[in-house]
């Protein structure tokens, strides 16, 4: 039986947190259908699916779960969470809906591309492997390949092209929207819990992004802790922003764009 490693434990915790979080958000959407809740719910479900795939890949090799691990984490999760924030803050015209259509199109295109058209080197996998250390080639300073990864150099120019674009766009939308919302509530001097909650969401969104950036720089050590803490902080922030004490309810005011938590 595979011994418990820190990446495995952190992945299990991330899976549990995001499973509960996705259920709460999707149930809220079911009871009160709003597009931002649906987008967040999809993003959180994909967060859970990516974390669960990490757990499964610790024990067995599966092209399906590796493809889901990469597709969810590298392409879809930040983009869908960011899309929820765009729906919440951009109320005029059809901007949010058009972005949503583009996101769906990219998702429909890249999932089968990842599953069926991206070459995987299964020999790079071994039981208990840390996926962040074996998913791509280990390269020497002179460019020589020391060890081939699962997504070897031959996969460059395939679905990996979309990874930085989707991650940067989604992270900027989610973090920027949360900071903007915190600023609005702070300026109005109302709902301190939403100020704190939005700062937690912004911080939580930055942590997985930082982990991904460090992986690209050759240091995967922060990936799992950033992923777990990110899920916990975003969950905590969401909980604070959606549970407003009665005494802090704002008085009626002219209609303005909503901030995260509305």
Provide a count of the helices.
8
User: What low-confidence regions span 5 or more consecutive residues with pLDDT below 50?
Assistant: 250-256
- SSE order: HHHHHEEHHH
Question: What is the correct CATH architecture?
Answer: Up-down Bundle
Taken as a percent bin, the fraction of beta residues is under 5%
- What count of structural domains? 1
Biggest sheet architecture? 2 strands, antiparallel
The number of strands is 2
The rough form would be described as: globular
Strand order of the largest sheet: 1-2
CATH topology annotation:
Rhopdopsin 7-helix transmembrane proteins
Radius of gyration: 19 Å
Secondary structure class reads mainly alpha
What is the helix content? 55-70%
Average residue pLDDT:
83
- Text of the CATH class: Mainly Alpha
Straight-line distance between termini: 47 Å
Question: What attributes characterize this protein structure?
Answer:
262 residues, mainly alpha, Rhopdopsin 7-helix transmembrane proteins, 2 strands, 2% strand, globular
Account of the protein in words:
There is one protein chain. Helix 1 runs antiparallel to helix 2. The longest helix has 27 residues. The protein has 8 helices and 2 strands, in the order H-H-H-H-H-E-E-H-H-H. Strand 1 and strand 2 form a beta hairpin. It has a two-stranded antiparallel ribbon with strand order 1-2. With 262 residues, it is mostly helical. It has one domain: Rhopdopsin 7-helix transmembrane proteins (Up-down Bundle).
